[in-house]
Specification:
about 240 residues, alpha/beta, Glucose Oxidase, domain 1, seven-stranded mixed sheet, two-stranded parallel ribbon, 6 helices, 11 strands, about 30% helix, about 20% strand, elongated
C-alpha cells in the first residue's frame, strides 16, 4: 500500500529497495556526509529472516515495557491498543514499525512481537519491524514480514504499550514518526526525505567505483600494481 501524497514518491521508495542497507549507508556518505556518524543502528540486532529483501517505509513508532504490568484498567488498555493499531494503519505507506523497549537492564524480558502482531501489522500495511526488544513465534511469523530484534525469547511477560507516535531510539538509531526507514539483515538507517531521491544514483556510483576494485581483487592476475591502477581509476568515476 503506497501513498501518492507522501513526501517521497513511491517510485523513489521502490528504487531504494533495490539496494541493501550497507549500500544505502555508503550512498548517504556522499549525499549527506554530516550524517556519517548518526542515523543508523550501531548495535547488533537478530534477523531471523536474512533472505528477505530490504524494506523501505515510513516509521510507526512505539515504546513497550514487560517487567511490570500496565497501570491502566483492562478497558483502557484495549482502547490504547486500538488507538495504536489505528495509528499504525494510517498515514503514508508503506510503513515500518520501530519499537523501543524501555525495560533497561531487562530489555527483551517479554516479547511484544510474535505470530499475532506480525500478522496484524502486515495486514495494517507494515513491511517489517525494527525493535531492541524480543520477538518469538518464529515458525508462525507472518510470511514476508521482516524482523530485526534485540533478542528472541519465549514469553510475553507483562508486555504492554507505554506509548506511541513519539521519538524513539532503537540500537542507537533515533527515529521519529514518519521518518523513512531502510532495513535489511544488516540493520537499519533513517533516510531524510530531502535526500531520498538522490540516493539511488549515489548508490549506483558507489557500486561502479567498487566494481573496478573488485574485478582486480577477484582476478587470478591480481598484483599490487594493478590494485594501485584500479584505485586511481575508481577515484576518477563520478
Amino acid at each position: 500500500m503506497t501513498d501518492a501524497t507522501a513526501p517521497v514518491p513511491p517510485s523513489v521508495l521502490e528504487a531504494l529497495a533495490r539496494f541493501d542497507t550497507p549500500t544505502i549507508c555508503n550512498a548517504m556518505e556522499l549525499v549527506a556526509p554530516e550524517r556519517r556518524l548518526s542515523g543508523y543502528t550501531v548495535k547488533p540486532l537478530v534477523c531471523p529472516f536474512p533472505d528477505l529483501p530490504p524494506v523501505v517505509g515510513y516509521a510507526r513508532t512505539a515504546t513497550i515495557r514487560a517487567t511490570t504490568a500496565s497501570g491502566l484498567p483492562a478497558a483502557a488498555q484495549r482502547d490504547q491498543r486500538l488507538a495504536y493499531y489505528e495509528y499504525v494503519g494510517t498515514g503514508h505507506g508503506p510503513r515500518v514499525s520501530v519499537i523501543q523497549d524501555l525495560d533497561g537492564a531487562n530489555i527483551g524480558f517479554g516479547a511484544f512481537w510474535g505470530e499475532v502482531n506480525s500478522a496484524l501489522h502486515k495486514a495494517l500495511g507494515c513491511l517489517g519491524v525494527v525493535t531492541d526488544g524480543s520477538i518469538r513465534d518464529i515458525p508462525q511469523w507472518a510470511p514476508g514480514f521482516q524482523a530485526l530484534a534485540g533478542s528472541i525469547g519465549p514469553s510475553h511477560a507483562h508486555v504492554h504499550l507505554a506509548g506511541f507516535g513519539d521519538t524513539v531510539n532503537v540500537a542507537g538509531m533515533t527515529v521519529r514518526s514518519d521518518d523513512i526507514i531502510h532495513a535489511d539483515r544488516h540493520g537499519a538507517v533513517v533516510i531524510p526525505a530531502d535526500v531520498a531521491a538522490r540516493l539511488p544514483e549515489a548508490a549506483d556510483l558507489c557500486a561502479r567505483r567498487e566494481e573496478v576494485i573488485l574485478s582486480i581483487a577477484r582476478s587470478d592476475a591480481f598484483s599490487l600494481d594493478k590494485l594501485r591502477a584500479a584505485l586511481a581509476r575508481a577515484a576518477e568515476i563520478h
